[in-house]
Amino acid sequence: MKIPYGESNFKKIITQGFLYIDKTSFIETLEQNGSYNILLRPRRFGKTLFLSTLRSYYDIRCKDEFESLFGQLVIGQRPTPLKNSYQILAFDFSGIETSSEEDIRRGFNRRVETALKKFLRRYGYPLETDRIIEKQTSPADKIDYFFTVLEEANIYLLIDEYDHFANAILGESLELFSAIVGKGGFVRAFYEVIKTATMEGIVDRLLITGVTSITLDSMTSGFNIGDNITYHQDFNQAMGFTAQETEEMIQPFVEVCELNQQEVMQTLANWYNGYRFSSRAEEKIFNPDMVLYFLRSFDSVECRWPERMLDDNIASDYGKIMRLFGIGDREGNFAILEELLVNGEIIGHHKGRLDLDTHKPFERDDFISLLLYMGFITINDTVLADLRYRVPNYVIEQLYYRYFKTEIELRSQVTLDNGRLKEAVRQLALHDNITPLLEEIRKVLALFSNRDFMRMDEKHIKAVILTLLYQSEVYFIRSEAEVNKRYPDILLLERKPIAVRYQFLFELKFSKKKEGDKGLEAKRAEGIAQIRAYQELADIRRLPKLQSYLLLTDGIEIEAIAV
After folding, report:
1. What predicted TM-score, i.e. pTM, was given to this entire model?
2. Exposed (0-12), middle (13-18) or buried (19+): which is 415, by Cβ within 10 Å?
3. What pLDDT sits at residue 159?
4. How far is residue 131 CA from its own chain's centroid?
5. Where would you tag: which of 214, 258, 400, 412 has the fewest CB atoms within 10 A of its CB?
6. Could you tell me if 332 and 436 lie in one domain?
7. What torsion do the CA atoms of 448, 451, 456, 460 make, to the nearest 10 degrees?
């Protein structure tokens, strides 16, 4: 099996025998929805491959290849009348240098000019048109002249990563973002020309992909023709893998290595599944890049799992987007993150438009909507007129806790030593030595008592402990996971391929200092009783090498009682 990890060229994947999950049924759905669409998804979610598929399907130059490319696919068995009927104009705005406004302008200008030239050469237009386009100084002027030359053309316009450079600068400077995207900005002027071309019939169809709607929202009057289908139920599965598709992909590995398919699927679901893009959708979606990373990294010869379940590229990409947490009220945004980690969920309302007008506050629901677009939260269910959001999977949870540690350090003006944290977890895993971990927890609790930037209660203390544990990749960490309809506070479970000598169950109890020794003793008895009840559960009893501890704290001191 050739795994197309990092491959986004549809024609290459099909002709060179790579694994391909057929998403072509959504071509007809897209056609039926309308002519001008915007489909946004988190980073590395298959957007570029989807556009590449559309390009091969609609390009008049690919007519002779239709059977070889699509014959075995759903759309090949039932093609639409519009197949191979367009000239394709495609822009990709990823990778533009964002150090300064001039760098952005130059990079955007170059991407526009290159795409226009490729189009003209592909479809046999006179070379003199190239030279005239080169002389135009702005992206808007270049594409305006281009459309003048192509008055009789029938164009399908595809724009990939339309907001990539804008998101990069948004986390640094709202003023710079507004200058290039807002009224009078060169990006807005470019899209105004495209809007005119749709009205004149030169651009017959359009699909834009990216991560968030902020860029388009910020130039609404300049470009308000697109239907944002991001959260339409019909497109919930257009990108990413369903459980059935994922199960089919892992089947060869399961058979060769004689694995338990249900256990493998559960592991992949914990790490990579959980995305729901419509409150009406019944099925959650796996992140495709993460699944393909796992398949590529799995050693089917020795039947060894990947050393790391988190792709470094994913961590890097999401780390950059984390800068968007600084938009608007940073303290309010941190409070939302804190609520999400402490309670495991947040309740809010997704806004159809994110307004970055500097005269208006960037409110709670704006930030929640931004997190939803980025894939940092996902729709879980409805609560009256609002939605309940959760962290989609373990990968995103891990990234959150890393960011949370950064915020703790920033606010307390100290550095928590990752080396010491990893050593503390190592001592747990190999020697059942919890003392180093307790020392690290005490350090952070002392910071909180001196700088009251977090409320001090049991849930917040648990968030601190999880933040420290998540800095190591030794264990699969479960917080309040359901076990036979009971919910232990923290489980540290062995994760393949890392072998540990001990697994752990932690139950946390907090007693305020004013409650005195009697309060502590009552919490001690309560916690020990809970742990003993957990130890009788069938799923807990099946866990090998399990050690159980009650973590008892008054918010300053903490002790561990083995049970």
Report:
1. 0.91
2. exposed
3. 97
4. 41
5. 258
6. no
7. -60
